Amino acid sequence: MGCSVLADRRLYSEVFLRKQEQSDNEKESRPLGRGHNSQFFSSPAMTISTKRGCIWKTSSRMTALLMASHIVCLAAQEPGSTKGATTPEPGSSGRDWYRPAPRSPNFNGTFALAPVTVDRPVVAIPLAVRNLAISELTDAEVMKLTREDCRTLGVPFEADELLDNVINEKARDVKQGFRYMKLHPLDGSSSDATYMSIKRGIAENKAQIGHWKSLKGRVRPYLVRAVAANDVNHEFYATFWRDSVTVVHRSVVHNSANDPLRQHASIGDMEPAEMVKWPVVVYIEAPPAHIYTRIHVLKLGR
Fold this sequence. Notes:
Layout: H1 5-26, H2 59-77, E1 119-120, E2 122-124, H3 130-136, E3 142-144, H4 147-153, H5 160-183, H6 192-214, E4 220-224, E5 227-228, E6 236-241, E7 244-255, E8 265-269, E9 276-277, E10 280-284, E11 290-301
Parallel strand pairs: 7-11
Antiparallel strand pairs: 1-6, 2-10, 3-4, 4-10, 5-9, 6-7, 8-11
Helix pairs in contact: 1-2, 2-6, 5-6
């Protein structure tokens, strides 16, 4: 449960953005081939594919954008959309790999919250070698990779470049936040809430930058089981907390035709009838004790 908090926070931000739109309208050691059958306040791991260029109308909408630019662009580009999904081959059905984390006990009416340091770099295995990776995980949930293994799978052995990418992205978000605060100082108006929200976001981004920098030279690649809602998209993020890795596939379902004013959105975990196996490489400090998989869906429209 705790490992899902950061992901949920991002998706809730998208719902908030959509509410702002309504308001504006109203006013991530065995050689391969020798086994069987020879993530504003972004993100999830390193499969980040944010492409900015979103336009905001009001200062309140800017807050939502700064807080959720990653998931907003995700929705705009329709990654993970079930449109065009192909029926998985019988051997690729992911149901036996689907393993959500057990729910945390609710002690004294509170839940354990995952810290900002749980995110880890993650790379989806390319489609061309996905079946090879699946065969290597037939009898194991996780496998430490060598440099040769990574070359075979077409993924990085070192995570430094992946880390630099997300660090640079967050640094841009911080700079953008400071720019807004300079242009819109506190003045006792209702826009002060936006200012304070951006200020808190800057602090969180700085903490995450420190976290990503601390991982340099400390993490190693592990091939891990994961599942996806479809064969089309490979948007994953991963967390490492309490010796457990949780890999989440993000999927966006668009029903805009049923919601022309874009007033409705819902989020949550989903267990698709025809999920597929899609191994990923997660860069972590030590072998995990447990592997959990989830599929998180943002539904836009009714």
